[in-house]
Amino acid sequence: MEAGPVQKIRKDGSSLQAAEAVVGMEGDSPEGGNRLGQGKVRLEAVETRGKGTPEDFRGLLRVLSTIASKDLTVEPSNAIPGGKDAHAIVGFVRQLVGTIKENSSRLGGTCAILIGAVSDTASSSEAISKALQDLSDAAAEQSDIVETTTLCLNTMMQKVQEVFDSSKDEKAGILQTVHSIEQMNQAIEQVASELSSLSAVSSLTARAAQNGEESVNKTIDGMERIKVKVFESAAKIKLLGQQSEQIGEIVEVIDEIADQTNLLALNAAIEAARAGEHGRGFAVVADEVRKLAERSRKSTQEIGKLITGIQRGTAEAVKAMEEGSREAESGSEIAQAAGKALTEILTAVEQTDEQIQNISAVTQEMSASSSELAKVADNVTQHVEGNVKNIERFYTATQELDGFVNTLRELFNQNADSLKDLSGQAGQLPAMVEKITTTTQFLSHLGADLKQIAISYKVP
Question: In terms of pTM, does the model score above 0.85?
C-alpha cells in the first residue's frame, strides 16, 4: 500500500521507508549584510530496512515531546531507531530559535534608532512652531507700529509745527521699527537653520523606514515558508494516523482468525475423543493448534494496544500541528500588519520631507521680503532725519513717508498670510510624529515578544 511522501508500508510489514523532507529558510537584513537565516537547513531521513516495530517510533516521539516542552538540550543517540532523524530535527529547531533571537534583537535596535530619530523630529517641529509664533508676534507688533505711524503722519500733515515738535519721538519709533525688523530677520534665519536640520533628520528617518520595510517583507516571506511546511507536516501526520487505523483493522481480522482457529481446534479435540485410541494423535495436533491460536490472539491483543497508543499519540500530534498551523497563520498576519504599518510610516515621512521643502522655500521668500523691508526702514529713517533739519521740507517728506508706510502695511499683510500658512503646515508635524512613534513602539514590542518566545526555549 503506497502512503505518499511520509511513509511506505508494504503488505508483508517487512519494510518501512521514510521519505526526504527539506526545509529551507534564507533572508537578508536591512543593511544587506545580515541574514534572517544563515544558510539552508536540510533534514534528510534515511531509509530504514528490516521489521518495523512500535519501538522505532517511540524514540522519535520522545524527542518531539521534549522539543514541544521547549527543551532543546536533548541529544538523541544515532544508535537508537530514528536517532539520526531526531538529531537532525533537534539541530533544525535550535538553529530556528537562534535565528529568531538574532533577528528580534536586530528589530529592537532598528526601532530604537527610529524612535531616536522621531524624537529629534518632534523637537525640531516644536522649534519651528515656536519660531513661527515669534514671527507672528513680531508681525503683530510691527502692524501696530505701522498703524501708529500712519496716525501720526496724518496729524503731521495737518499740523506741521506739531510734527516738528514730535519728530524726535517719531525718529525713535522708526529706529525701534528697524530694530524689530532686524529681530524678525534673525528669527527667519533661525527658522531656515531649523528647517535644514529637520530635512536631514527626515531623510535619515525615511532611510530607516525603508530598511525596516525590507526587513519585515523578508520576515513575511519566512513566515509563509514556515506555514507551508507546518501544513505539510500536519498532512503527513494525519496520513500516519489513517495508516495506523488500517493496521488496527488488519489486527482485528487476525484476532477473528485466531478465534475461529481456536474453535476449530476445540471441535477437532471433541472428534478425536470420540475416535478413542485412533484419534489420540489427532487430539495432540488439535491441542497444539489451540495453543497456537491462543498465542495468536494474545499477540493480536498486544498489537491492538500498541496501535491504540500510536493512534492516540498521532491524534495528539495532529492537534499540536493544527495549533502550530494557527500560530504560523497568526504570525504571518502580524508580520503583514507590521509591513503595512512601515509602508504608511514611509509615506508619511516622504510627505513630511516634501512639506519641509515647501516651508524652506517660503522661508527664503520671507527672508528676501524682510531684507527689502529693512531697506525701506532705512529710507524712512533718512527721511525723518531730513525733516528734523529742514521744517520746510518736512511736509513733502511726510507724504513720501506715508507712501512708504502703506507699502509696509501691504508687506506686513503678506507676511501675516504667509505666517498663517506656515503655522497650519507646522501644526501637522506633531500628528505625523506621533503616528510614527506609535507604530515604532508597536514594532519594538513585537520584537521583544518574539525574543521572549525564543528565550523560553532551553538550549545547551
Answer: no
